[in-house]
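REQUEST ID: PR-0412
SUBMITTED BY: lab tech R.K.
PRIORITY: routine
TASK: structure prediction, single protein chain
INPUT:
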Amino acid sequence: MPTTRRTFLSTAAAGAAVSLSGSGLQTAEASTRFGPNDTIGIGLIGCGGRGRSVLRQHLAVDGVRAVAVCDVHQGRMAQARKEAGGDQVAAYGDFRELLENKDVDAVIVATPSHWHVLGTIHACRAGKDVFVEKPLGTSIGEGRAAVNVAKETGRIVQFGTQQRSWEHYHRAAEVIQSGRLGEISEVKVWDYDYFYPGFGNPPDSDPPAELDWDMYLGPAPKVPYNPNLFGHRHYWFHDYAGAWHVDWAVHHYDVVHWCMGVKHPVAAAAIGGRHAFENCNSEWPDTFNGILQYGPGPVAEKGFLLQYTARTASRAEQRSHGKRFFGTEASLILDRSGFTVTPEIGKSGEPESYRTPESNHSAAFIQHVRQRTQPFGDIEDGHHSTIPGHLLSIAYLSGSTIRWDAENEQVIDNPEADALVTRTYREPWTLDV
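STATUS: complete
OUTPUT:
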């Protein structure tokens, strides 16, 4: 059943009372250590296309083997099990049973977004290290809960922002932080895709026999099965994800924070609407623009604006998922194909480009698991990188420009918007694990 802005606000208001786990850091000595020749057993939670892809990347690392897979859909689970090694790999329909398997040392959480935080928290409590896909949950309060539990348990948790392990992103950060671009006042980031005319408006129906629909919903509200709520289209519904401005753009916010040396915006505004899709039951806008304001930082001493655009009915641009840093001396455009520096009009120099092979984020995670060191791109980085998208969601849903108190993680002087900082969980699920 579609969620209107009004019903979403009233439902989320109750979530402000959800309690979060406390913090505290367990020492590295209390964690399991792995020798260079020890085999690390991996469990996969979430066996869709992305989960199986990430598992393959991990299995390509020396000294890693698949121990178990888990999914609420029997067909997807069977496919992942086959690819991971067949009958020697255990299979579970409930991730909590996978976490009881003592041969599992670390897990990949590649579920839909509304399960990322609970999967991470339960895994940390079970003594497992975690590679969790982005974004970090469907609300800011969830992300904070995951950070607190990871610190309390001392587990290694790496966030799935693979650009952190890509050489040309490191080189781009060096260029930006060197001052070579001059004074940076604005960064533009964008996600352009072609989903026209949308995903259709299929009727609610009984779930497929191979799908545990109630388990799929988990902490989300109880609603009838609809084909568009399951699988890769879950991104476009309020209770399961945050469309491209959260679920894709977290990659952009992460890189902007890293390059600019900042952690959080101070204000957010957003507007969007249904300007392209035809007869589609998706809930987030198909065309969306947001602006985030950042205070002074080590690169932009006067602060800067981050402008985000999502468009789902045109992908004509050559670089359809990217970011551009605008400075007084030059600008830098950056995406997974590389980066290009272009001098400002009237400034000396020629445009130059740099490209590198793909990231190996999985190898980085395994190295940190062995060495018991925190990743560059850990769960706290993931939390800070997810917050901008959530703030744009809050601004859009509340219809207001919001100001953000990062220290206390709350919206300033706007109770309606602040009620959206933490989501309501459907019983019996809770963040207190």
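NOTES: Confidence is low (pLDDT under 50) at residues 1-31.
REVIEWED BY: pending
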